[in-house]
Amino acid sequence: MYKVLLVDDEADVREGLLQEVDWEACGFTIAGTAENGQEAKELAERVMPDVVITDISMPFMDGLQLSEWIRAHIPLAKIVILTGYDEFDYARQAVRLSVDEYLLKPFSADAFRELLGKIRDRIGAEVAEREDMLRLREHYRTSLPVLGETFLASLLTRKLSRAVIDEKVRSYGLGLEGSRYAVAVLALHPQDKAEDEAGRASLRASGDRDLMLQAMLNIAKEIWDAAELGAVLIHQDNIALIAIDRINESAVSKTEGDETGGNVTVSRPREIRRDGLIDGWQERVHETLGNVLRSIEYYLKLDVTVGIGSVTGGLAGLKDSFGDALLALDYRLVLGPSKVIAIGDVERRSGEKLRFDELKEGALVRSLKLGTPDEVADAVDAVFADLTETQHSFGDMQVYLLELATAVLRTAKDADAPLEELFGPGFQLHAELFKFAGVPELQAWFHDICLKLMRHIASKRQVGYKDIVEKAIALTKEHYPDSDWSIQRLCSELHVSAGYFSGVFKKEVKMTYGQYMMFIRMEAAMELLRATELKAFEIAEKVGFADPNYFSFCFKKSAGISPKEYRGRLARSGEEDRS
Fold it and tell me: What is the pTM of this model?
């Protein structure tokens, strides 16, 4: 069902349309009715109608003014203008406002139902077009290569959760399944020496780095694909090669002769280099990268260096491997260019490096700022899991804990949390971390620190909400006599966005700001009617209404009677009290 907002200042027209038309049979439901454009505007903000059916001649805001507002704020809504014959020329202005249909009064129920059918079909066609799954699927299919490459690039620069990675890999059909991964970076570096060989500098002489990278990509991809090692892409003015161990070549099968002269298949480890890092798969990766480097130098006459990052057990670790590959490239200043440089060759590491990455940091910071005690506990468990599940050097653990402490302190600083007030005089988080006998005791203490900080931030946020609302109420009571006062002006005074303020205000006050301002104005009007002899139009001006008639309309809607009747009741009540 499509929602309809029906606007006409004549009650009999509204009631007639409500009674004579089977709206549900036509595919519509009445979301609301209004007597004038101003009331309709306020109602439209709440119900977000699909169709607005409005008269032209109405008090306070006419149908064309309402249509202009609807088109600006609810652009997909259909607008139907109802107009008399004498207003037909006036109604033609509606063309400028992109009004969808207009209907001349008087009209029959059949003509109105026919119009509704046209509007329904038009909305249905537009919805179908937006939801055309075949078209969307085709567009998605043709975009898959670009989307897939963009996702691969994001893996090199961001830590993504396992769930997000699995979903994207499946959606894009990337085929990245494997037991281990590593990233290599092929970097083009400046050439300073003079070129003597004819044609050697032809590509470089073009000065087009993008052209060079594309030529390098073509060669690298051809060799990498032939070796079935993974994916290749241009990233950050370099060539990134993602190596995937699809069959875990840390051990290989080899066929040997047995003592009886037959053949037997045995599984034995490949020869391990003295650094302890190279097995069969890694050796193949190194050899293939050497082929890529030599081919680029031979065919393109370009000087390049390859950096190989650390091996990681999952796609989420590609960012770390990529960072290590860039670090390996820096060693060309020591070892010289035109080499394949593995981070494991130049920096001795025992096992996978302990890292406090942005996923763990983000989860911890979110739990401190917006989480529950259970979410804080989960986040702390996650950041300490790596410390307890695997053996690491004390130096690595020190760096990890210092990064952890820095994340917490940064969060506390952003929240203006008084650490000494919360945790005692002379509190120094970085120093306190290393006073415990073991990781379990440290984790329990750290969890308590995070819990106190989370509760302080939550309490301060609640105080902040109340402070904003209290200031808003004070400013509203001060400025409500100004007919130009609005939520936009209020938020400008408070230095907050209207969207944020609206949510906070409604949560605290249990009504929208527009409803609250109307309540304040009506309360002030009733007080003036009780305490003064001012006329209704004078009271209207004093409580922020530029149009006295609209004031009377709003007052009657609020109090159930007109200002004059309200004052009359007060007078009769006073006489009865005196008698």
Answer: 0.53
One-letter amino acid of 500: Y
φ and ψ at 577, to 5 degrees?
-65, -40
| Residue type for position 253 | S
d(CA 315, CA 401): 24
* Tokens standing for residue 402: 């210092």
Beta bridge partners of 321: none
391 versus 519: which is more confidently predicted? 519
Tell me the pLDDT tens digit for each residue of 397-416.
888 888 888 999 999 888 88
Neighbours of 443 (CB within 10 A): 18
Residue 460 sits at the vertex; the CA angle it makes with 459 and 462, to the nearest 5 degrees, is 65
Residue type, 230: G
The tokens of 477 are what? 């009571």
Give CA–CA dist 413/109, Å, rounded.
67
Dihedral sign, CA of 367, 368, 369, 373?
positive
Instruction: Please answer whether residues 37 and 49 qualify as being in contact, where contact means their C-beta atoms are separated by less than 8 angstroms.
Output: no
In single-letter form, the type of residue at position 320 comes to D
Encoded amino acid at 138, one letter: E
Report pLDDT digits (tens) over 155-205. Answer: 999 888 888 899 999 888 888 999 999 999 999 876 544 344 444 455 565
Average model confidence (pLDDT) across the chain: 83
The rounded Cα 149 to chain-centroid distance in angstroms is: 21
38 beta partners: none
Please tell me the number of Cα atoms within 13 Å of 120 on its side-chain side.
16
Contact 115, 103 (CB under 8 A): yes
- Tokens 């906070």 appear where? 504
CA distance 83 to 558: 29
Q: How far apart are CA 373 and CA 375, in angstroms?
A: 5
DSSP string, 197-208: STTTTHHHHT--
